Amino acid sequence: MKIFISGVTGYVGRNVARHLAQSHEIVGLSRDKEKAKILKDTSLTFVYGDLHRHALRNELKDCDIVIHTAADTDHKNLSKTQYKTNVDGTAQLLTAAKVAGVKRFIHISTDSVLLTGKPMKNVSEDASYPKKSVGDYSHTKQLAERIALNANCDAFTVIVLRPRFVWGRDDTTAMPQILKAIENQTFSWISGGHYLSSTTHIANLCHAVEASLYRGTPKEIYFISDGDDRPFRETISGLIEAHGLTVPDKNIPGFIPLVIAKLDSLRRRLVPKSSPLPVTFQEYATSAVEVTLDITKAKQDLSYRPIMTFQAGLDELKTTKSTKQLS
């Protein structure tokens, strides 16, 4: 099949491209020719520009499927283009894909569309959207998800995947921020980090995307995770150690970041252009409370089964780091 991937140089996009290029023809949308070099060893055709590129309809011709991974993931509520990218960009790509005759659209969403700042235990896909989002990222991704689902029709099927905390090899999203906080000595566990959290290794997400090429009910949402929910502290400690660093032991009570996050939200409403406080409500809701996902539906409809265990993922990280040090 011929598959179009938006955000192909992003963390999820490039790994999906590498995975699928082994058996499919890939066309990848990238805004940056320099970043595209990261895929120099992958067989694909590049299209340069953003989601608002006028020529997209022509470039999507003959494509069977679109995998939409492009997103502005800013959690600080600072991005001035987050709505344009996540909402308008999704709408533009959907329209272009429909006009071009694409048959299937796989939208990569996030568990963040449901976050409230309160624990979410074994949540399923039928959970309602919250009345108020915890931040701009959650809000724009929720709007994008709604637009994608509403675009579904008999000739154009839409499938939504919602992973949580994508991790593993080649991570340029979450872990670099955590490692930077450790380096700057600003990292602290919240309430000991003992609450459970679902995670999604990049290999498992790629596997789920591949399954969605052929399976899945149109206009349905599927949570994707590693299937072995762990304490947040266990996950992050394992990742930190895999990167060769000592796990910090600094801890703060949960009410402190919650107060800071709520003050930040209030401050930003009163003074929209003010700089964010150390913790935004988007960040708090993402990483300071339990969030676990029920993936039963993905197992049933997509025949999804996690292929990478937590320990295997850590071993892969250690091997990758050792190889880089030797080269």
Protein model, in words:
It comes from Marinomonas polaris DSM 16579. One of its GO terms (cellular component) is cytoplasm. InterPro entries: Epimerase_deHydtase, NAD(P)-bd_dom_sf, NAD(P)-dependent_oxidoreduct. This protein is globular. With about 325 residues, the protein is of the alpha/beta class. The protein has a domain at about 1-170 and about 200-225 and about 295-310: NAD(P)-binding Rossmann-like Domain (Rossmann fold, 3-Layer(aba) Sandwich). The protein has a 7-stranded parallel beta sheet with strand order 3-2-1-4-5-7-12, sandwiched between helices. It contains 11 helices and 15 strands.
Strand order of the largest sheet: 3-2-1-4-5-7-12
Unreliably modeled segments = none
CATH-level-4 superfamily name of the domain at 2-170 and 198-225 and 293-309? NAD(P)-binding Rossmann-like Domain
- The top-level CATH class of the domain at 2-170 and 198-225 and 293-309 is Alpha Beta
Number of helices: 11
Helical coverage, percent range: 25-40%
| SSE succession | EHEEHEHEEHEEHEEEHEEHEHHEHH
| Average pLDDT reading | 95
**Overall spatial form:** globular
**What does the largest sheet look like?**
7 strands, parallel
Beta fraction of the residues?
15-25%
